[in-house]
Design brief:
The complex is a heterodimer of chains A (about 190) and B (about 150). Chain A is mostly helical and about 190 residues long. Helix content of chain A is about 65%, strand content about 0%. Helices cover about 55% and strands about 0% of the residues of chain B. The chains are: A mainly alpha (about 190), B mainly alpha (about 150).
């Protein structure tokens, strides 16, 4: 039902953006946040996240997933990213069941850039690995609240769960994340 | 009034640092707005193992199913050049003497072509019963025939 709501053809009479240029400008403005959310939805796998984000951009710009204005553009976009990531992960699972093989190499370099210190990069890497170890719901809610700075209510809307459920995942996720980061010496 | 959780500040700091790191590594927006052309051999890569497995299975069946009997390889040894001269040396003459072949490969076509499973599966009566039935038949007399 949620998928139909998010990806259905335009049924609302309040289209916020009609032209491709306007939609593209909105997508460009949310590009970094969208990549971060795609990373959270893909267990912090950068290759998968970029694949998912590319599928989303093509889907939105070609008009297959029109924005209907029933929520904020960011909430709607994050919902589309989350559903596309679920489809993508389902495809990867089927592919693995068909022909299990070694995990794909990460095509994106993890080496620190000249402008950042190795310590900063190492810290970010540990936080990323720790997030990836959390259950999906806990990872999602922590990402939306701490990484994106959203309110818990908006996070619940994007995740497609009630506020109470999101709150439970939030508390458990915080507890688990803090414990794991403590073990790694980050906090 | 509810006290703020001190862990919130730590988590917030850690995740904001992660966000800054992700932003540095984000690909350009324009790079992701076109249909994917980045990894055209992706499907080939993941189909290759199953294709290779199928090819290996077919090769195994073919090579083991039509393997030539061992005695054929011995029969086609090249003839020494001295044999055509008419006076072979003793060593060559000794090599030309036919060697006794293993009993299994000699005249045992049954061993060379193990087709028992065909008879066992397809026949309604066992092979031994068939042989026994043939043995019980009276000898054939061309003047009298089987039915007297």
């Amino acid at each position: 039902v949620q998928k139909v709501d998010l990806l259905s053809t335009r049924c609302d009479s309040r289209p916020v953006s009609d032209s491709r240029e306007t939609v593209e400008a909105e997508l460009r403005a949310h590009h970094t946040a969208s990549l971060g959310w795609a990373l959270a939805c893909c267990r912090r796998n950068r290759v998968d996240a970029e694949d998912v984000l590319q599928q989303v951009y093509v889907k939105v710009l070609s008009g297959k997933a029109p924005f209907d204005g029933r929520s904020s553009f960011r909430t709607w976009l994050f919902g589309v990213i989350r559903l596309t990531a679920l489809e993508h992960l389902r495809f990867l699972t089927l592919r693995w069941l068909h022909a299990p093989s070694a995990p794909e190499e990460n095509l994106v370099s993890d080496a620190p850039s000249p402008s950042e210190s190795i310590a900063e990069r190492e810290r970010a890497k540990i936080v990323s690995e720790t997030l990836a170890r959390l259950p999906t719901r806990q990872r999602e809610v922590l990402h939306l609240t701490f990484y994106e700075g959203m309110a818990l209510r908006e996070a619940a809307e994007i995740m497609g769960v009630s506020l109470g459920t999101a709150s439970q995942h939030y508390e458990r996720g915080k507890e688990r994340m803090h414990q794991l980061l403590h073990e790694r010496g980050i906090v | 009034m509810k006290q703020p959780d001190p862990r919130d500040a730590q988590l917030s700091s850690a995740l904001r640092a992660l966000r800054a790191d992700d932003a540095k590594r984000a690909p350009a927006f324009d790079k992701l707005t076109e249909a994917r052309t980045r990894r055209p051999f992706r499907n080939i890569v993941w189909l290759a193992p199953s294709g290779l497995a199928a090819a290996a299975a077919i090769a195994f069946v073919v090579t083991n199913g039509v393997q030539a009997p061992q005695h054929e390889a011995a029969a086609v040894s090249p003839r020494p050049a001295a044999a055509s001269a008419g006076t072979p040396s003793p060593a060559v003459a000794a090599s030309l003497v036919p060697r006794p072949r293993p009993a299994q490969a000699m005249g045992n076509a049954h061993a060379a072509l193990p087709l028992d499973f065909l008879l066992d599966v397809g026949a309604s009566i066992p092979l031994t019963a068939t042989v026994g039935t043939l043995r019980d038949l009276p000898s054939f007399d061309s003047n009298q025939g089987f039915f007297q």
